[in-house]
Specification:
Layout lengths: L6 E5 L4 H12 L3 E6 L2 H14 L3 E6 L5 H9 L10 E4 L15 H29 L3 E5 L12 H20 L6 E7 L6 H5 L4 H7 L8 H12 L9 E4 L15
This protein binds NADPH dihydro-nicotinamide-adenine-dinucleotide phosphate (NDP) and 2-hydroxyethylsulfonic acid (8X3).
NADPH dihydro-nicotinamide-adenine-dinucleotide phosphate binds next to helix 1, helix 4 and helix 6.
């Protein structure tokens, strides 16, 4: 399926997987609607994707946790951006790595509000238009963490298990329409993810990737663009991808 001039809405496009996905869709000549909170970073991504071949770009300053702001952002899109063809529900984060009974409740709220409720708000705002127009594709970012819970990560893993259930539920609920629903579930990807998890502790973040060659954001972006580019009658339900040195959430082969 040609992605030329398709309107692709990516949440969390200011870094990591979201920014790489914007670049990958740009190379296909898509129109990129980019959202995040850090507008300066978003502007950098926008400039790069135009150089890369995006047909057009429009940036939105959006916190997906703000239910009203999400609906307003979609309702007030300029007419030429309103008919979203592809939604990539990528905005997400982990905070902390603590035993559940010692966890920081503010961290839990932030993860659940972003990864679960934010994803739901954006989906609720965008998918009705897809159903009415009779076309659309939703790609949700899951994780190996949603398949297998690891110690000290119960709330993040729970948020990604919820993503998995919501992804499958949405696919059931749009059955009978041409809308497609895909979950892309990576293992370890080197992005700002671990720095965010450890509240800016770069030394601790670097240890996460020690002795392992992680996935790059571009590896994940390539899978997302591939899933969206399948012929219109093909729905890729879920793609699980890991570095070769990772078998699942818990099992890694680390070089000394
Ligand atoms: P990054 O930290 O590099 O990027 C996260 C993106 O989410 C940023 O653009 C950030 O933008 C945005 N974001 C966070 N909170 C909000 C919010 N409240 N509203 C809007 N945007 C928000 O991490 P990744 O690229 O790694 O993460 C992207 C997705 O991939 C997440 O859903 C993550 O759970 C998932 N994932 C990551 C893996 C990994 O190992 N890195 C593996 C599996 C899944 P800003 O701060 O500017 O708002
Ligand atoms: C991100 C992968 O293993 O750090 O979802 O939770 S992990």
């Amino acid at each position: 399926m040609s992605l030329k001039r398709k309107i692709v809405f990516i949440t969390g496009a200011s870094s990591g997987i979201g920014a790489a996905t914007a670049m990958a869709f740009a190379a296909e000549g898509a129109c990129l609607l980019l959202a995040a909170r850090r507008t300066a970073k978003l502007a950098d991504v926008a400039a790069k994707i135009l150089e890369r071949g995006a047909a057009a770009v429009h940036c939105i300053n959006l916190d997906v946790r703000d239910r009203r702001a999400v609906q307003d952002a979609i309702d007030s899109l300029p007419a030429e951006w309103a008919e979203i063809d592809v939604l990539v529900n990528n905005a997400g984060l982990s905070r902390g790595l603590d035993k559940l009974y010692m966890g920081n409740i503010d961290d839990w709220e932030e993860m659940i509000d972003t990864n679960v409720k934010g994803l739901l708000y954006v989906t609720r705002a965008v998918v009705p238009g897809m159903v009415v127009r009779g076309r659309g594709h939703v790609v949700n970012l899951g994780s190996t963490a949603g398949e297998m819970t690891y110690p000290n990560g119960a709330v993040y893993c729970g948020s990604k298990a919820a993503e998995r259930a919501i992804n499958d539920g949405l696919r059931e609920d749009v059955l009978g329409t041409p809308v497609r629903v895909t979950s892309v579930d990576p293992g370890m990807v080197e992005t700002e993810f671990s720095q965010v998890r450890f509240h800016g502790d770069t030394e601790r973040a670097a240890k996460v990737y020690k002795g392992v060659k992680p996935l790059t954001p571009e590896d994940v972006a390539e899978v997302i663009v591939w899933a969206v580019g399948r012929p219109e009658h093909v729905n890729i339900a879920r793609v699980l991808l890991t570095p070769v040195q990772q078998a699942n959430s818990l099992l890694f082969h680390r070089e000394p």
